[in-house]
UniProtKB/TrEMBL annotation:
UniProt source species: Octopus sinensis
Domain BAP29/BAP31 transmembrane stretches: 1-37
One Pfam family per UniProt: Bap31
Protein name as it appears in the record: B-cell receptor-associated protein 31-like
Domain of life of the native organism: Eukaryota
Length: 68
């Protein structure tokens, strides 16, 4: 009976360790992907803002040239 309990406890221990490792690896992967997505969104919004500012500057310059 002691051998059965020792083997059972060993299986439970290794399964728990595997489950913990799996959850932590998934969490770190998701965390890294989340940071990458946040950086990509920031870069895209900055690029769009710069693009809109450039278009507004071009319109202002062309408007000023017509008045002269």
């Amino acid at each position: 009976m002691k051998l059965f309990r020792a083997q059972r406890n060993l299986y439970i221990l290794f399964f728990s360790m595997f489950l913990l490792w799996f959850i932590l690896s998934q969490y770190t992967t998701m965390s890294i992907n989340h940071e990458a997505l946040i950086n990509q969104a920031k870069n895209a919004s900055e690029f769009a803002a710069n693009l809109l500012c450039d278009e507004a500057d071009k319109e202002n310059r062309s408007g000023n040239e017509l008045e002269i």
